[in-house]
Batch of 3 targets.
Target 1
Amino acid sequence: MHTFNGAKEYTPAEIEDSLGLISRAGRPQQPAQTQQSPAGRYVQQLAICEFTLQLQIESLKVDSFPIPKQSRPARATGAAINVATHLLGASFPKTAANMFLFSGGPCTYGPGAIVSTKLKDPIRSHNDLLNDSSAAKEFKKNQQYYQNIATKAAVNGHTIDIMIGSYDQTGLTEMESLVDKTGGSVVQTDSYTSAIFKQSFQRMFALRGDVEESAIAFNATLEVKVSNNLKINGLVGHGTSLLRKTPTVSEIKVGLGGTDAWKLGSVNPHSTYALYFELAGAASNSPFATFQFILQYQHLDGTRRLHVTTVQKNVSQGKPSLISNFDQEAAAVLVAREAVDKTMRDDSVDLLRWVDKILVDVCANFSRFIPNQASSLSMPPTLNFFPQFMYHLRRSTFVQVFNSSPDETSFYRHCFLTEDCTNALLMIQPSLTAYELDKEPFPVLLDSESIKMNRILILDTFFHLLIFHGSQIAEWRRERYQDKPDYEYFKEFLDLPKQEAAEILIDRFPLPRFIDTEEGGSQARFLMSKLNPSTSYKELDNLNAFANGARGAVGAVVFTDDVSLQTFMKYVNEAIVKTN
């Protein structure tokens, strides 16, 4: 048994020496292959240690050390991560490995501590990090501590996953580099006993599957080669730059720029990466540009594998051809990814102004209008939803941090940079489906007018799956009509959204929070916060109609100071026609 001081930051040499991983000649021992090797005492094959591991897990007990009143438990999370990372690095250097961190509360002791053990000291908030210089300084120090650990893990090809089961913040914002740099995953729940954690944890291992059919790749590296008429700006996603600069690397950096190769760590079917390029001017007279993506990784069976994808695109097209092939959904996700990356790397960036400038510039370049006449603006069909996506991006939890803790914001942003275009777009603009009696389910606008008293709505934000019952449906449900023999059809109607929700949950990782609520319920706020407030309290006519009982026609009144999509588009149109 070995004990380490939780207040000390150990070096790799100190840990290797303490654990006997350094030979008498001063050279590291060979990686653990057998039980007799020094490292084999700590890292063994599952077939050898499965029984012992299961026995240890089943015998775990709550910490018996007393916790003083009005105090938090002393947790040396930072020191534990440091020791575990160096132990794994000494045992399996440059070899694929996976480490799990189970965090049940904030680090309160030693390096990486985000708060003291005294409950009277609050855990840092977004406001503290923005306006309190001492809190911001401590945050940067802790962030740098975990970044150093993450870099060492990434170089060795090791992946770190973080499993959180706590009502309190645990310091994910400081620790996010551990998962971002190594390609790890984050599961954030209120408790380890919750269904969300249990099913998400099981799903993580289900992705691995059998050794031969595993969908997980480890210790992955991505290289990008392009023709001479292109330059590589960078990559936005979970990885680490390999700092390999070639003539095709641009001086303009986006995300992880200044290189054409990245260490990705763990890669699964959900992993998605955004790559940004620029035309190199007159470097080549060819109208075509060639991209080659070289992915190397270690399979679960230990073999090294290589995937090469080569694509050629016409880059000499003019505006008419370019806009006719414009993918506004992919463009919205790419803008959002760059916006998220900017706010994670530079707190001074005014994201709202940056997003607005992108929107106005794109629309001004491809729309038709008469200068200074907003009514003359005409957008091409392939661009008509792009402003709507930008509107919802401006209101999303990726840009707005109001009513979210730093850890929640980090969790949302981590998932957004992981998922593919479809799921990422769902995070920006959630889907809303309506259910009415004697009708098939149908999609409706993400708008306050979509709320009707005789309608059930299902909202999918990726992070939350919410079933909302209109006032009339909620009243019938409270009166238990679904339990009466003559109202069997009503029971089936109430079950339809639940069946749809169950189908959505099949492939979702991490598992979203499920919410069943009704109009006027406290948790209805999750729906109201996502809706376009076209019937807000500021619209006097709608409010009067609501007060006079015309509830079914006007939708719900949203009490918010946010501008509606209609008002937003009015200002955008005016800005576009004034650009020339």
Target 2
Amino acid sequence: MAKQPEEKTTTSKEKMLRGSAWMTAGSMFSRILGALYVIPWMMWFGRDRGQANALFAIGYNIYSIFLIISTAGIPGAVAKQVSHYNAMNEYKTGRKLFRSGLYLMVFMGVISAAALYLLAPWISTGDKDAIPVIRSLAWPLLVIPMMSLFRGFFQGYQDMAPSAVSQFIEQVARVIYMLVTAYWIMQVMHGSYVTAVAHSTFAAFIGAVASLLVLAWYYLRKRKEWDVLADNSADTLDISTRDMLMEMVRQAIPFIILDAGITIFQLVDQYTFFNMIDDFVVGTRATFNTLYSLFAFNANKLIMIIVSLAASMAITSIPLLSEAYTKRDFRDVRDQVDNTIELFFFIMIPSAIGMAAVAKPLYTIFYGYDFTGTLVLEFSSYTSIVLGLFTVLAAMLQGLYQNRLAIAYFVVGLVVKIVVQYPMIYLFKVFGPLMATAIGFMVASYLMINTMNNMFHLKVAELIKFFSETLLFALVMYAVCIGLQQVLYLFLNPASRVQSMLVIVLVAGVGATLYGYLVLKSRLGDQLLGSRIAGLRRRLRIK
């Protein structure tokens, strides 16, 4: 009997690792594909690429807020509630929640799509070219709420594969449509870049439809298995459809706010940067658009690849923590929180520092050689650690039903961001918004992790030790990568896209190999991955 909690913890850890693996794979492939399209896309826009970039960023920042409102935080909320009911052997109630939620999602999709379309002239930041771009993004809002409900339902069963696969298919369909229309309008028809950007944003609708079809196929495959669980459930709860929907909305509101956290910070930049930078830098709106696109679109597009790693862990942790909390197994809760934070350090820190190390060739491949752009990407890479940490910690607090605290801490961080925005832009110019964002999220993250430590008495000493070792290995990797990169640039042209690709392959390969060796040699990853990593060490004959 004494070993039961330990076995349960091991099971939870395996679920977390398996779920994180699926979501990480789906998210990484999607993000990488979503970044790679930029190379031909930018080339086809030619001299208008800077304006097209800014227009795309303005449209997507506004759309992101409407998207989160229209989905009403449904993936996280449904995953949390379904997992809660499943832990009580109330599978039938979870199915009822899903069916009721479909009606709500259709309603939310229609309302949010109509609102975005009609409000476009008033939320276009005074740029008339942004209006058709924003309106083209109303269409995906009709589909994405339903798609989100399906994903949340699967995640409630700790089944992450459908979400991961649908996410990848969504991105493939979206990118194909974007590239085909951009090439046709800009290269064949020699049309307006505004029209081409509007089609590029409309591609989100094409991707959403493809994703929904994949999820529907998975649902039909698994329906018989879920029917068996529902038939054998306790069936002791008698909750009306109205009460169920109200509970889902109540649980979803924190997800709306916190899922939009990074986007809300970016909107602060969108609506303050142009006026603030004008006080310190002489230039036209086109000049400021170019500066804005350096951090809001170019760098952001790339760092979100690694921030998605944190999002994958967050999605996986919510139903697992909800299940353990429902069962009042607080030892399991503490171990899951510790494991999730350590997994975050283990993956996120070397990924972010590694991206910073190859910022020059990476930026050149995607956007062409640019000294300032490279520096912005490198600094953004460091800030992505803070963005990812906030994402994970906010998700864990929600899984533990500490919604009000999570929102309160986010608001504190947002207020800090707004307060320091102007002085940071004064001191650091184009880096100012990034600095203000990092400070705001650091404050929020500290408050969150301090609360969880007070609640569950985390193994702080072990976490600090794990963080220190991970950071040390990542810095060693960084130093070696920078040194190798400098040697390669003695023979290669940093402004060449092809030669930059060669630099990335060589430097990233050496960096990943070195970090992997240090992790295996020091046995840093054993406590996370257990026998798997020990077996790998034996096969590689590392003592």
Target 3
Amino acid sequence: MSTPISDVLIIGGGVAGLTLALEIADYKSVTLVRPAQDDQGASRWAQGGIAAVLSPDDDIEAHINDTLIAGDGLCDTEAVRFTVTHGPAAIQWLIDQGVPFTPETDPAARYPYHLTREGGHNARRIIHADDATGRAVVDTLLNKVAQHPNIVQRNDLTVTGLLKDAQGACRGAYGSDTNHQWHSLTARHTVLATGGASGLYRHTTTPAPSSGEGMMMAAELGARLMNLEFQQFHPTCLFDPEGPAFLISEAVRGEGGHLLNEAGQRFMLALDNRAELAPRDVVARAIDAEIQRSALGHVWLDIRHLGEQAIHHHFPTILAHCASRGIDITQQAIPVVPAAHYSCGGVATDLQGATDVANLYAIGEIACTGLHGANRMASNSLLECLVFARSCAQALLNDARKTNAQKSDAQEPSSPCPIAAFQPSRKTTDLSSTVLSDIRQRMRATMSQHVSIVRSVAGLNTALEQLKALLTTLEEIEGAVATAEGSRLQHALQLAQLTVLAAQKRHESRGLHFATDWPQHQPLATASSLSISDLAHRD
């Protein structure tokens, strides 16, 4: 089944996808594919806030410098400057949309909204909506999207691949609906906003994380993937093996929270002069080391000394959620562990979100813009979503103006080029979802054991062999990859292998990639680059 052509097809309904839709919908027809699981994805669960230079006491160069330091020599300076410079306007756009940011109550403050501080930042520059910023932003933008007459939402589809024409340009996407019927969605421009790849790991900070499926869809059309080895682990996820994932915001440490070991002692003081506010890679490795030395299986994050009033004021969502899990954070320290959180690598793009494939764009966590380098600094993620969604919108609108200028008023819009044939299998399968679930869990166990915070040559070799075996098992199951669930799992296993290959190629420790066999930096910092053809040599 095929749908009529749209000007722009956006796949993914987090902050990046919603922002783009709203920025272009007055001028272009938009189809927004936003599956139900997007409400459990990374954007809605972002707690801390958005980093931007907003206070008169802060400045652009300071934010740029902090970002470059956190990125450990691998940031693209142009991308950093572009993002930071456009940050204040992006925040003002959100304010104009009605996002309810937390106001500043101090009459002496020089900015009307409360700004907090997080790891790696040398100033208070994190604007937030209490401790549920992502939810506030998504809900506000989603309400605007629902009211816009030029945006068609598709909540019933799971996109599993992209369409291309005879020249290799992207012409839309295809996927399966809730009744297992296949659909193609044609479009002049396609934008991927499908999130990162933290779902490759067992422990994550979001209930329904992506596993890099969008990255592999782009790679299948010829897009380059960069810096896949730099998977960020948030230092503090609630430790509760029996319950769902829940992030404990970095703002908790920004407001003065202490990390304690099994003996109840602060351990970050001896490791880094920034203590609990060191960049995430430093803190995550320190926590991981403490966990290995103890029998607890976690460390403690203590904010009792802040007092009940401050805790209720700054962290109402965390307070309520922990209470629902039997933890009173005004009286008890919070048990925390590192968990897969953010993919610094992804689909290589320029400053407008354009990929190597004509008519295909990527924005948000799926993209590798060069902003984060080897380690994302806290709260630069939603900033990147906003800035690059808005710059992508300008590129699409400028393209439309150029196209219109080349046409006579009487001309009809040009028809799409012929789309390469897509024929999803009509073969039905009795494949049990438990079989696919088992393969996925084994993939996550392998990645968590061998390709997480600390890596080794031997562990990466083992991981690659195990992942290859799992992919072979999947592909040998008749009809498996012809289903939406099987196709997504195939993409996840492929991306997991490429992540290992990227890690194997980096003979150093840098940022989020810490290798026991290569503990030092190489003199020259270089980005990694892979394509789908690298999988052809996996044997």
